[in-house]
Amino acid sequence: SRLCVPDMPPAKGVDKVVIKAAPSQAPQVAVGDEVTVHYVGRVLGGHVFDSSRAREKEFNFVLGAGGVIKGWEEALPMMKVGETAKVVVDPELGYGKKGMPPKIPPDATLEFEIEVLSSCKPIEKEVIEESDSNVVAKEEDYVRINLVVKDLDGNVRDDYFQSNMLELYMGHHNAKMEADGTWRAGALLKKLVEQMVLNEKASFKVHEPIMDRHGNKPFWGDGAVELEIKLLVIGRDEDVTGDGGVTKHKLSEGQGYEKATDGANLTFHYRITKKMIAGGGVREKTTAQGPSPERDVNSQKKSDRLNYDKWDQLVISDDGEIIENIPPRAQRALDDAEAAKKSREGASSVYFSTWGSDKPASIIVGFGETCEGLEDALMTMKQGEHSVFTIREDYGFAAHDGQPPCEGLPSDCPLVFEVQLISIGKGLEHWNLSSEDKKREGLRKRLRGNEFYKREQYRRALKLYDPLVSKTGYFMKMPQRPSQAAKAQREAAEIAGHKIHNVANAVAHAQNAPDTEEEKQLKLELQLPSLLNIAACKFKLGDMRRAIESCDRALDLDARCEKAFYRRAQAHSSKADFDLARKDLQQLLQISPDNSEAKRELAKLQKLEEQAKRKEKKTFGGIFNKTLSEDQEAEASQPPAGSDAASSSSQRVVEPRLVEQKDFDVSPDPTRAQVKSIKKFAIPLPDVAPKVRIAGIYGGDGDDGDDDA
């Protein structure tokens, strides 16, 4: 860092008062530095006109480049990093005679409270390889980069991460310099990556010292360096299934935008391990082509040391022994390295791997050929992508009905699947399938879903039923191109001034086109049983609304479908919609009078309804009984019918209420009406208000409620 110099004398037109002194070894701000400050600006003795603290955003600028007023350029070289001071600036060094209306009046003396957060020589960036992408890393992202460290003469000091990837979680670091004028490695890399886009390669010249998080110097020593960085991956830990069952961590980007679709043949390499390093492997030893299958022990130990010692100045012999005394902060770094090594050793317990073999794995997605978690994971990948998935046990091979890839896989804990997708085959183009193909593939999918349903794996079964009933699935209709005749008719209609939608043979919306008899029959064979099975799955999973929707769609296909009425009645009953459930069961019995299941469900419904009434009476009956008893006491306190009070009450005269009747004459403007005449007449009011009875289920007379037949 730069040498500290004594406080400079105040410049003419600028007064500085120290509020908080800087640390003794803090560097001095110099002209040409990139300076970061927080400030509050006031008109002297008046209002605040600007504040970076109110915006909650630091102010960054290069001192001497004309980006700030002259008063700041005179005052800041008198300050040090970490210092807070009050600076008063005369008008000639501020905004002068013009001011900056309306916030700053002419000839205003300004007062600033400035805190210097950092000051360093600007980092110089040079783009080596441009990128067409506009994707930048955000605070919640992680990045994976290639890194080469050189001196300013171009000599390579470290190229370990040229063929390996270094990973950085953006949110774990604060892109600021330390108060002592040094950079922590993570903070510096975050600051540099923030200036890049995906797939860009650039070099950055850094003149300030770089340290690890414990304050240890890097092994290449002091001095300015050039960091050559290629931004390869911008990712975010993704919850694939939405319930934490499968989480994704991307190691390398794939090609293009295409992902697997239903029925696509996928070829991939994968391996199953017990766990991965927290954060997805802080410094991976895998190359872009995938991990090397085997390694000898000595090279593994050497790589473990290299993996960490890039940022530490520790002297370690070939057998791993420390040959000199270690300062405390270096010891902390060594402890971190040992913990990372143990974590890697735990992650290296591989249960199964296709890497190193000539035959990769291959499946057709959408038919349950592998465990649910792995199939869901593969559907999120692009060709060539390399990712790590943590798959919970209920999504893994323990819940799969097929043969696991190997013996000894744990069934009581999540496992880590490292996957690289090699190729994506062509999926089923549902809109192009013939009726026979739809019938064959759809039946295969439905029968596979039935197998999962019988094993009570309803979530997995739904994934096989859904394409059969989805508008984008097997019965999707693609918009058709207009024929030459249609184009000619459209042109003629436009010339004649007719609306296009009235022209015959114009472009029709295929989704609204009526089904052919063949399509109707195919839907009865494929969609109807699938909708009934979806309703059953949703009922088992407690999603009554979706169960009812599936039954509604089934009844649209077959208005006399007994199972649809029965399952919809069950769903309504579970929602305590007893009237709707009874209606469905009664319709079912009209179709099939001897249906024993419907009769049992109706009897069960009767019991549920009685239980609900008893519960309702227990909850609310006391309230209404109390109200009724108070009414009875009030009636008992009334005088007898023959008493004077009663006769006076019966002879009470009620003043009539005047009501105005207006006769309207409609004006030529239909939105307005004109009053023609007003008539007034009296409506006599009743002497006694009608008495409202309470239903018997609330504690009143039992005859007031409806009978449950």
What distinguishing features does this structure have?
709 residues, alpha+beta, 7-stranded antiparallel sheet, 6-stranded antiparallel sheet, 23 strands, disordered N terminus
Report on the architecture of this protein.
The protein has 16 helices and 23 strands. The longest helix is centred in the C-terminal third of the chain and has 41 residues, at 596-636. Mean pLDDT is 78; it is low at 1-6, 277-316, 500-511, 645-676 and 685-709. A hairpin with a 4-residue loop joins strand 8 and strand 9. The chain has helices at 52-55, 70-75, 160-163, 185-193, 297-309, 328-347, 372-378, 435-454, 458-469, 484-496, 517-540, 544-557, 562-574, 578-591, 596-636, 644-650, and strands spanning 14-20, 34-43, 48-51, 59-62, 84-89, 110-120, 124-129, 142-151, 156-158, 166-169, 183-184, 201-206, 210-211, 225-235, 238-239, 246-252, 265-273, 350-353, 361-364, 386-391, 415-424, 657-666, 673-683. Strands 15, 16, 17, 18, 19, 20 and 21 form a seven-stranded antiparallel sheet that branches. The chain is an alpha+beta fold and 709 residues long. Helix 8 runs antiparallel to helix 9 (458-469), helix 13 (562-574) packs antiparallel against helix 14 (578-591) and helix 14 packs antiparallel against helix 15.
Short description:
With 709 residues, this protein is of the alpha+beta class. It contains 16 helices and 23 strands. Strand 8 and strand 9 form a beta hairpin.
